[in-house]
Design goal:
This protein is α+β, with helices and mostly antiparallel strands. About 25% of the residues lie in helices and about 5% in strands. The longest helix is centred in the first third of the chain and has 17 residues. The relative contact order is 0.11.
Length: about 120
């Protein structure tokens, strides 16, 4: 993510390609899948095709933080500027997660739901 020079209030996603590490992992998927599924009654494994630039987890575009100057939402996932707006998604992450963000997203969603329901506890 970077800032759009023509519209500094707007983040801009720029994809520079997959790292060699990611490409090597994708090449190993068919063999790993066969090994992991060997004990199951799987008739055929369809390996993934070529990865596309849109496959991934876009994160940190509506960053969480305490200072409205460098973040968009507070720790409660509420917008600093629009106080009745809650952002529950990977965009609120303050930093990029090292792996699939599903569990963290589920926890953030529960956190936001509890706050919206009025309990305020996590």
């Amino acid at each position: 993510m970077t800032i759009d020079p023509s519209r500094p209030e707007r983040p801009l996603a720029v994809f520079h390609g997959y790292s060699e590490y990611a490409q090597a992992t994708l090449r190993r998927v068919p063999d790993l899948a066969a090994e992991l599924l060997a004990g199951l009654p799987v008739e055929r494994i369809h390996p993934p095709g070529k990865a596309r630039a849109t496959e991934g987890h876009v994160q940190c575009t509506v960053r969480m933080g305490t200072d409205p100057a460098d973040s968009v939402v507070d720790a409660g996932l509420v917008s600093h500027r629009v106080r009745n707006l809650v952002v529950a998604g990977a965009s609120a992450f303050p930093t990029v997660s090292p792996a699939n963000p599903t569990l963290t997203l589920a926890a953030l969603s529960l956190h936001a739901a509890r706050r919206l329901a009025g309990s305020g506890s996590c």
